[in-house]
Design brief:
The protein is an all-alpha fold and 172 residues long. It is built from seven helices and no strands. The chain is globular.
Length: 172
């Protein structure tokens, strides 16, 4: 009985740690944490909604009101999933390929390649999640060309968040 209680407590602890990336931040930082903070700011979200609304309306030919609904839903899902996944994927990068790359480049964690890969991960993650929402929730077909346009819209959204880091570095 005592053993089951310990397992339950351990599972609960892991559940909290895995669903709350903010708890894992302590004194350790890596590029995905900084980018995640900026992806969730009003200006990055606003720019992303506007850019992706235009994509949905112009390239998928979704009527404006419906495009706004699809835009908000797919970005809500993407934001929640990204908030949970991006820090952990970024940490996984830092522990495995990042360590080898840092040694090879003779740099630390915050090198240009790590930033490029972190932004790339954010773009791919957002694009895949948002494409899934468009395809399976709203039943709009996505061609390879439209998927590339959605990726381009996500590149622009992530670029806004990254550019904000260049303008003003966050104080954690």
């Amino acid at each position: 009985m005592l053993m089951n209680s310990k397992r339950s407590n351990l599972r609960a602890l892991w559940a909290v740690l895995l669903t709350c990336p903010a708890l894992a931040r302590a004194d350790v930082v890596w590029p995905a944490l900084y980018l995640e903070l900026r992806l969730l700011t009003w200006y990055a979200i606003g720019a992303g909604l506007l850019i992706e609304f235009v994509f949905l309306w112009r390239y998928l030919h979704i009527p404006p009101l419906k495009a706004a609904l699809v835009d908000v839903v797919m970005n809500g899902i993407s934001s929640l999933a990204g908030w949970l996944l991006l820090p952990w994927i970024g940490l996984g990068y830092e522990y495995f390929p990042g360590q080898f790359l840092n040694q090879w480049l003779h740099t630390g964690t915050f090198n240009p390649v790590a930033w490029l890969l972190t932004c790339g991960i954010a773009v791919v993650l957002s694009t895949v999640i948002e494409a899934g929402a468009v395809r399976w929730i709203f039943r709009y077909p996505l061609t390879r060309r439209n998927l590339l346009w959605l990726g381009a819209a996500n590149i622009a959204s992530v670029a806004v968040a990254f550019a904000s880091l260049l303008v003003s570095w966050p104080n954690l």
